[in-house]
Write a structure and sequence with these properties.
Layout (H helix, E strand, L loop, with lengths): L2 E2 L12 H11 L9 H20 L7 E4 L2 H16 L6 E5 L4 H12 L3 E5 L9 H10 L3 E5 L13 H10 L3 E5 L11 H4 L3 E5 L10 E5 L14 H4 L7 H39 L3 E3 L10 E6 L4 H10 L2 E2 L15 H5 L4 H4 L2 E5 L6 H30 L8
Parallel strand pairs: 1-11, 3-4, 3-5, 5-6, 6-7
Antiparallel strand pairs: 2-8, 7-8, 9-10, 10-12
Helix pairs in contact: 1-9, 2-9, 3-4, 5-6, 9-13, 10-13
Bound molecules: pyridoxal-5'-phosphate (PLP).
Length: 399
């Protein structure tokens, strides 16, 4: 039996999503840009999906650009804003050290193009202090764009976005938030957050992989990053993935209808898992803010245990977890998020992320709580044995 606790990497399709994708692929073959009836039928499918996504974030449908991923939405926000602002004298971008690679690498690319980048630090719990943004904005009045993620993918910490966005606005800078890890998990309202742009990704809340959206405040002029067509009001050229986006719309409607009841149930299971692991395994610590975080995520350090080894041991028992960002797992680099929070590289290497979803059951949690202590114990004993072998002079070694 598989126990899946890696919802922050991707979530299984929500009810109705697979059917919607298949139905649209089969029954709606038109191109949404065509003016004939089959084209208009495909256009109607896109319009529905757009409305459902907009409802989920309290936005107007016409202010959404449908994209091929959360990464693409982040790229469009940052590159599109930079291109729009490039001729002015506000050529500085402020972001944080804990962003997802989609933002970090895009900011680095803008740095290579001559933009100045300020990367704000976070405290031990992973939170960006509004005072730090205020200081950065006051330092020099040249910030054009601020990009701060809503929740971190590795530890789940939520940022005080409304406060940060208000500061940016007061200084005349645009504010983008990567809300890939919050949309569909906690209530998100673009107006309550007060942001100018917001990225989301379908597969993080039950939509198909390869779907996403960027919400852009009306009146904000972004420059398209893909050219060659007038789709998405000339902000994203290319025929839309109609079937995939139909699935995104279904996932958005489902999340909208169930969020209020699902989120507390998921949080209760996450808390039970966390408590069970902290009580059942000595030498464990929770990383990141415990109060201000998404309801489904916990990131735990297991002293003396290489997290990659524990991940593999759990996988062999049919339990899927992660060491952090899916994109950077498979490398032995310590997490940039945990080290930015002040954890040592060696502690960061002992940290595992458990991320739950609507389908996680009480039985799943009980099984994980029951299995982890013995696995951790075994790995600790193995690493002590390996260390003692390493300290022993090997046979025939020169003195
Ligand atoms: N931003 C954050 C915070 C993420 O966690 C992810 C995916 O892990 C992305 C962006 C990228 O989204 P996508 O997988 O849709 O490209």
């Amino acid at each position: 039996m598989q126990i899946y606790l890696d919802y922050n990497a991707t979530a299984p399709p929500a009810p109705g999503v697979v059917d919607a994708v298949c139905r649209v692929l089969r029954d709606t073959p038109g191109n949404p840009s065509s003016i004939h009836a089959p084209g208009q039928k495909a256009r109607a499918v896109l319009d529905d999906a757009r409305r459902s996504v907009a409802d989920l974030i309290g936005a107007r449908a016409s202010d959404l650009v449908l994209t091929g991923s959360g990464t693409e939405a982040d790229n469009l926000a940052i590159r599109g804003a930079v291109d729009a602002l490039n001729t002015g004298n506000r050529r500085r971008l402020i972001t944080t050290v804990i962003e997802h690679e989609a933002v970090l690498a895009t900011c680095a690319a803008m740095e290579a193009r001559g933009w100045r980048i300020t990367r704000l630090p976070v405290d031990r719990s992973g939170i960006v202090a509004p005072a730090a943004l205020d200081a950065a904005l006051n330092e020099e009045p040249d910030a054009g764009l601020v990009s701060v993620m809503h929740a971190n993918n590795e530890v789940g910490t939520l940022q005080p976005i409304a406060e940060l966005a208000a500061l940016a606005r007061a200084h005349g800078a645009w504010f983008h938030t990567d809300a890939v890890q919050t949309v569909g998990k906690v209530p998100v309202s673009v107006d309550a957050l007060g942001v100018d742009m917001l990225s989301l990704s379908g597969h993080k809340f039950g939509g198909p992989k390869g779907t996403g959206a960027l919400w852009v405040r009306r009146g904000l002029r972004l420059l398209a990053q893909q050219t060659g067509g007038k789709q998405e009001r000339s902000r994203r050229a290319g025929t839309e993935n109609v079937a995939g986006l139909a699935g995104l719309g279904v996932a958005a409607s489902y999340a909208h209808a169930t969020l209020q009841s699902v989120a507390p149930a998921v949080a209760a299971r996450r808390d039970r898992l966390e408590r069970g692991l902290l009580d059942g395994v000595p030498g464990t610590h929770v990383n990141g803010a415990v109060e201000s975080r998404v309801p489904n995520t916990t990131n735990i350090s297991f002293d003396g245990v290489e997290a990659e080894l524990l991940l593999i041991a759990l996988d062999l028992e049919g339990i899927a977890v992660s060491t952090g960002s899916a994109c950077s797992s498979g490398t032995l680099e310590p997490s940039h998020v945990l080290t930015a929070m002040g954890l040592s590289a060696s502690r960061a290497r002992t940290s595992l992320r458990f991320s739950l979803g609507a389908d996680t059951t009480d039985a799943d949690i009980a099984t994980v709580i029951a299995r982890v202590p013995a696995l951790v114990d075994k790995l600790r004993r193995l690493s002590q044995t390996a260390a003692s072998i390493g300290n022993r002079p090997s046979v025939g070694a020169k003195k």
